[in-house]
């Protein structure tokens, strides 16, 4: 009979910003294993999505929680960074049992310190299950409209914001979005909505990829057909365009704008050195490695960082958080209007500050967010004033 080994590796995750709390949970009956990371709550209670994937690790969730800290501060909304993750296959037949076990295990933290939301592997119906298990309307956001929620994945608010940020950034660079070639890596909720809005703004979608492969047409894909196939066939939609190219092909096609909208670290040094894109708009969280960011900056490729470009989801989450106990539903018009205003302004501000300070856009964006978090930490006496 083996013995459990307690590792102190989690301490290596801690720095001057956080995390403040890491809660690892498990359930013997279902085999559920999960983690909640509260990164920094100086500006408000922890808020971030809940992810389900066999590849979830404590380090991954901590990285994503830190991104949420900067994302909330960058859009100047008053929540703190947090993230949760469940180590499981979202297609597992016992998904509901795992979700309920996870919710029960975090009953001490939810909803007082954290509120469940949607991330990779979870749907609006899953948010309803989490709410039901804890019996509290405040336990989750991203709920179906029938439960009074604002279904922001269904409405595509994050992808809409990515497109709005792309439009504003392109204009700042002197690049006309209408007629510009765009490649989108990832056709999940974010990628689909980004494709839809980019096409409305006049962009030409030359490539789109899923885990199955990449559909590519240098003259532009029929976006209406692409979105209809995606809704019908999911990741296999690319097969309707002939034998699909490898998924990573979307990162290397001839394009003016590249939108990574799927997983972390897909833009590595090789992709950064070879891309023809003049602008990269990060729809996914952490899609470019640090080396890739440096190479893009050296080559003069502008980048709208993830926590600037994909903050549409948290604008919607902020509205949803405010309305959790209200009998009234959130007005989508209010959400889309705020997304457009905030993300366009932030995209331009970050690119302008990057040029002024001769730093990467990520460094400029971090400086903005960190100054706001630091001020809150000082005011709450969480750090000495002179730090």
Please tell me about this protein's structure.
It is a single chain. Helix content is 41%, strand content 14%. The chain has two domains: 9-66 and 82-149, Leucine Dehydrogenase, chain A, domain 1 (Rossmann fold, 3-Layer(aba) Sandwich); 157-312 and 342-369, NAD(P)-binding Rossmann-like Domain (Rossmann fold). Mean pLDDT is 94; it is low at 1-6. It has 13 helices and twelve strands. Strands 1, 2, 3, 4, 5 and 6 form a six-stranded mixed sheet that branches. It has a six-stranded mixed sheet with strand order 9-8-7-10-11-12, sandwiched between helices. With 387 residues, it is an alpha/beta fold. It comes from Actinoallomurus spadix. Belongs to the Glu/Leu/Phe/Val dehydrogenases family. Keywords: Oxidoreductase.
What features would you highlight for this structure?
387 residues; Rossmann fold; 13 helices; alpha/beta; 14% strand; single chain; 2 domains; disordered N terminus
Helix and strand sequence:
EEEEHEHEHHHEHEEHEHEHEHHHH
CATH superfamily of the largest domain: NAD(P)-binding Rossmann-like Domain
**What is the subunit arrangement here?**
single chain
In CATH terms, what is the fold-level topology of the largest domain?
Rossmann fold
Number of helices: 13
Give the mean pLDDT. 94
Low-pLDDT segments, ≥5 res: 1-6
Number of strands: 12
Q: Kindly state the percentage of residues in helix.
A: 40-55%
User: Which architecture of the largest domain per CATH?
Assistant: 3-Layer(aba) Sandwich
CATH class of the largest domain: Alpha Beta
Q: In whole angstroms, how far apart are the ends?
A: 50 Å
Label the structural class.
alpha/beta
Largest β-sheet summary: 6 strands, mixed
Number of domains: 2
Cα radius of gyration in angstroms: 20 Å
What would the principal axes of the Cα set say about the shape?
Answer: globular
Strand percentage: 5-15%
């Amino acid at each position: 009979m083996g013995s459990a080994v307690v590792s102190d590796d989690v301490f290596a995750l801690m720095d001057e910003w956080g995390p403040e709390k890491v809660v690892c949970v498990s359930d013997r009956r279902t085999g559920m294993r999960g983690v909640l990371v509260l990164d920094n709550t100086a500006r408000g209670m922890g808020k971030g999505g809940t992810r389900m994937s066999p590849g979830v690790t404590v380090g991954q969730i901590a990285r994503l929680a830190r991104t949420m800290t900067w994302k909330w501060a960058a859009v100047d909304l008053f929540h703190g960074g947090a993230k949760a993750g469940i180590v499981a296959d979202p297609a597992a037949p016992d998904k509901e049992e795992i979700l309920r076990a996870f919710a029960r295990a975090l009953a001490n933290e939810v909803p007082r310190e954290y509120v469940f939301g949607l991330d990779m592997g979870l749907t609006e119906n899953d948010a309803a299950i989490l709410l039901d298990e804890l019996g509290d309307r405040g336990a989750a956001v991203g709920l179906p409209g029938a439960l009074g929620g604002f279904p922001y994945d269904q409405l595509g608010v994050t992808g809409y914001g990515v497109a709005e940020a792309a439009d504003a950034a392109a204009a700042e660079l002197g690049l006309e979005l209408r007629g510009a070639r765009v490649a989108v890596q990832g056709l999940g909720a974010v990628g689909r909505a980004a494709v839809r809005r980019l096409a409305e703004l006049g962009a030409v979608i030359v490539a789109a990829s899923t885990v199955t492969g990449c559909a590519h047409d240098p003259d532009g894909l029929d976006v209406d057909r692409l979105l209809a196939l995606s809704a019908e066939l999911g990741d296999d939609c690319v097969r309707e365009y002939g034998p699909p190219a490898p998924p990573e092909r979307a990162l290397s096609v001839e394009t003016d704008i590249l939108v990574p909208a799927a997983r972390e670290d897909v833009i590595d040094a090789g992709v950064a050195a070879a891309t023809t894109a003049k602008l990269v708009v990060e729809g996914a969280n952490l899609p470019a490695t640090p080396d890739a960011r440096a190479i893009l900056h050296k080559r003069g490729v502008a980048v709208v960082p993830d926590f600037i470009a994909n903050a549409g989801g948290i604008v919607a989450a902020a509205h949803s958080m405010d309305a959790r106990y209200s009998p009234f539903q959130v007005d989508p018009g209010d959400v889309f209007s705020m997304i457009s205003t905030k993300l366009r302004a932030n995209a331009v501000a970050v690119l302008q500050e990057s040029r002024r300070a001769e730093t990467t856009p990520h460094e400029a964006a971090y400086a903005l967010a960190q100054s706001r978090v630091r001020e809150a930490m000082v005011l709450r006496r969480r750090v000495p004033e002179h730090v």
